[in-house]
Each structure stands twice: as structure tokens, then as C-alpha cells.
Fold:
Amino acid sequence: MSVSLQKNQSLTLDSSKYDLSKLTIGVGWARKKTKKGLLGFLKGGDAGFDLDALALLLGRNGKLRHEDDVIYFGNLKSSDQSITHSGDNLTGKHRGDSEQIVVDLKSMSERYHKVTFAVIIHEGKERGQHFGLLENAFVRAMDADGHEMVRFDLSHDAAYDGHVSMLMGDLNRKADNWAFKAIGKPLDVERISSIAAKYA
Structure:
């Protein structure tokens, strides 16, 4: 049974219950329904939301070793081939996950101790879009067999209003185990490179 996390909670993934050879981190969202016309336009309701999910592979010191360790629509695979991005979904119109990042824990280099997952609304400021206008936003982790292990719902939090980027969660190496932590921390940056710069 999937565990629903609250902000800042973490869960050690149980290898006795799940096949952890590969994990799929799924991200989904839907925009809130708004009235058509001028009010809907001002609320960003007449334009599709283009959210970009990314993964940052971090060392023991919590820093990026190289710019190629940022996995996103422009860099779909890590150098050690352990992380693969599904590609850019421009609208969020998708059953289940809108974007996915697959993590092969068996082939992941030991130099990586944490994978941080973030999301940014493309051209959010220009389009008047922010996380306060989204509903049913979530991040979840599934095992190699597709069983959902953990989910973190990111909607209905006033702290997200006005923000166009966010840290969603962490995958942390703990000895022979991995743990998923829910973060849900909004950021005041508008570009993927700006998120990466925080870990340089």
C-alpha cells in the first residue's frame, strides 16, 4: 500500500516488499478550471501549463559535480546511464504521470548520494502562471513492477502561490537503503540553470 507523505516527512524504501532495482519518479498536474473571458485569462487559465521536471545528481557534499548531472528535457540521460527522463510534456494532459524520471539504482555510480527532484513552470512569470493555479499536482515513486510506494501531493498550499519553481523531493542513499523525502519547497527562480546554480 502506498504511503502518503506530508512536507518534510521521509520514508525508507523497503526492498523486502518492493523491487527497487529501478524506480520511477512520476510527476503529474492539472490546472484549476477557471471561468473563460478576461478573468480566466488574467489567472493564466487560457494557456496550457508547461511544467519541466528535473533531477539533480548530488555528491556526498550535496553539490553537483558537473552540469551533465542535471537531468531534464535537454539532457535526458545521466553520464552513467542510471537516470532517464521521459521528455518534455508541454500541457500536462496525460493520464497518470505527466512526466517521469526513471532511476536505475543498481547502475548508479557510488559518487551520487542524493537525487533531488524539482519542477519549474516554463515561462510562468510571462504567462501569469504559478503553482497556486494548479490542482492535483503530485510526485510519486514506483518500484520496478509499477507499484506505487510513496506519494506527495503538492496542491492546496497557500505557500505555493506566486511561485514558478519548486523542490519536490529527495531520494537519499542510506548505507544499503534508499529513502524518499517530501520537500515541497517553493523557489524564487525562473530557469533550470538557476536551480542548478544553488547546488554548484
User: Anything to note?
Assistant: The longest helix spans residues 192-197.
